[in-house]
What does this fold into?
Amino acid sequence: MMSIVQKLIDSLGKECVLTHEEAAQRIASNWQKAGNLDCLALIRPKNTEEVSIALQICNEYKQPVVPHGGLTGVSGGVHTAPNEIAISLERMNQIEEIDEANQTVTVQAGVILQQLQQILAEKNLLFPLDLGAKGSCMIGGNIATNAGGLQAVRYGVTRQLVLGLEVVLADGTVLSSMNKMMKNNAGYDLKQLFIGSEGTLGIITRAILKIEDVPKSKNTAFVALNSFADTVKLLQLAKRELNNQLTTYELIWQDYYTLMTSKPSDYPPPLPQNYPYFVLLETFGQNQEEDNVLFEKFLEKSFETNLIADAVLAQNQQELDWFWGIREQVEFIFSIHKPVFLFDISLAISDMEVYIETVKTDLRRHWPEMYFYAFGHMGDGNLHLFVSCGEANHQTKLRVEEIIFVPLQKIGGSITAEHGIGVEKKNGYI
Ligand SMILES: Cc1cc2nc3c(=O)[nH]c(=O)nc-3n(C[C@H](O)[C@H](O)[C@H](O)COP(=O)(O)OP(=O)(O)OC[C@H]3O[C@@H](n4cnc5c(N)ncnc54)[C@H](O)[C@@H]3O)c2cc1C
It folds into this structure.
């Protein structure tokens, strides 16, 4: 029997198939930025038909395949073993249609999120998914992971932004539900099965996404608070008083804020470091003058009622980059501490304070010198935890996971909010 790689080359053409040696020139993960691809071959289809042919052949040879998007996933979902074939959507990178009347955009799966945002912005339109990896991650990967990100409190997660989907199943069958309508109850909504399925059910090739008008106003503030209860009250107040403009509500515990605003970090602290909690909040609206008044009134009221202890508003793009850098440059943690375990959990807002204290105390009991950083998308019940306890062997990993996951299970939380399962959780505690 002809080798599968030769068969793929014969059927799809040489430019579509990189051999083991050629693929080995490429990076294996944009997240870890370490190691090169070690796979049987890498297929780069340029349309749905080629994805279908590739999968038919792989199915015939009982060949395991791993879909690749922008390789920014942090759970090992793109890990490809030497006997596996990777299928990258990178050449399916066309924006096929921007439908302004229906406020939809039709894209191929390999479109990079930031490029889509930029092209839409030129037409005063917004695709409201936003995340730190936007410069590399692809729409197919965003859908496959049901990405959440920084604006989910206002616009929802990817699941809420997808109207239609085209997927190729493992045997090459093309399943199309390229629907533009918001309402469509004609049968099962099969696309939902594929959103968040991390490539286990099929390869996403095209999608129809919901878009919005680009916001004409933005207000961003860093605030300091004296208690967790105040962070909850402030979130409620922001939802009530800001005319549905609250777009981001990122909670940062003191340890992370101090790390990110102390040397060797490039960021000075916008607020003194001696508060237990900080929130980065942002609103999007349509009238800058009116929205400034609304936002300032909201902050004044928060001060007067002692909800916030201190606050600073971003006055220009430089300050916006500064504030957002403190929240988003998580890679900095990895430059300071090694090794680091990263967790992405979901839990009720009302459980967050006690849960974080419980985990911290337990970690410290085992590793008195450990480092623990917590922050995340509080507005949608999602926190990211970083643990560095000086060791990274498998037993340590299991012990840390036990400390993180057992109390989470007791309160009905989830071991993954937006990062997914990948292969990272395969040989883990759960
Ligand atoms: C700095 C940084 C910040 C991040 N912030 C966030 C955040 O705020 N919110 C968030 O949700 N995530 C975040 N992430 C994680 C990551 O960016 C997201 O999971 C993103 O959606 C992955 O997209 P990707 O194109 O890089 O997918 P990849 O990493 O290439 O793939 C991810 C998974 O999807 C599968 N897959 C990829 N493309 C397809 C396809 N076309 N069809 C079927 N399966 C496919 C892969 O097999 C893999 O299992 C962050 C990552 C980094 C590095």
About this structure: DSSP finds 14 helices and 18 strands in the chain. The domain at 95-213 is CATH 3.30.465.10 (Uridine Diphospho-n-acetylenolpyruvylglucosamine Reductase; domain 3). The mean pLDDT is 96.
